[in-house]
Design a protein that fits this description.
Length: 213
């Protein structure tokens, strides 16, 4: 069902906390979702220009135990001088966090905001908090072509070859504002009557001569 709708949240930075493009807003985003839905089994964070196919996402999370500490997403890594190699799920494509992981992380958000404040990527800061503070091993389950986070960000047919079925694709990071408006309008008009697939989105854009998802 539909969750609560949030108003705009104003975040006051801590002394010395970075802001701008690389900031700690992901910590705030996760905490806000938990505060508004503490009994939710799964939490999703994605950029506002990312299209998520809800039916495919629900099929994916049904394969996992929400009480276990799990994070699903499109994985990347980089070497941080002070901490070594850090693996993380790329936030723009959509990241899914289980209830089991969220409940362990919430008490640490305030501490981790400052401890990992100098890491370059905001999504890497969240994963540094998970990896170095929780001591539960690595909960990150990487996509690697299995799930379809950011599965068609290039918009070309070749980019879809690693997926056996379009219904496997979870999300696509769409940059075209016109395409996003048409996709959102289409989903709003049709999702009540039937399940929207990624193929529906692709066909919609083709009919409108838009190269996108």
């Amino acid at each position: 069902g539909r969750g609560p709708v949030s108003t705009i949240q104003l975040v006051n930075p801590l002394p010395g906390e970075t802001d701008g493009w690389s900031s700690n807003l992901q910590f705030w985003g996760w905490k806000l979702m938990h505060d508004e839905g503490p009994r939710a089994k799964w939490y999703l964070q994605a950029d506002d220009d990312t299209v998520v196919i809800r039916a495919n996402l629900e099929k994916l999370v049904a394969k996992f135990n929400h009480s276990e500490p799990i994070m699903l997403g499109d994985c990347h890594s980089y070497v941080e001088p002070d901490f070594g190699q850090i693996a993380f799920a790329q936030g723009g494509a959509g990241v899914v966090m289980s209830q089991g992981l969220m409940r362990r992380l919430v008490p640490l958000f305030e501490t981790c905001r400052m401890k990992y404040n100098n890491l370059h990527f905001s999504d890497a800061r969240v994963h540094a908090c998970i990896e170095f503070e929780l001591g539960i091993g690595q909960p990150l389950v990487c996509d690697k072509g299995r799930f379809g986070f950011n599965g068609a960000r290039l918009g070309g047919e070749d980019d879809l070859n690693r997926y056996k079925d379009w219904d496997q694709i979870i999300s696509c990071h769409e940059k075209d504002p016109d395409a996003l408006k048409k996709i959102n309008k289409y989903i709003a008009e049709h999702q009540v009557e039937r399940e929207i697939t990624f193929g529906d989105v692709r066909n919609l854009l083709k009919r409108n001569n838009i190269r996108g998802c």
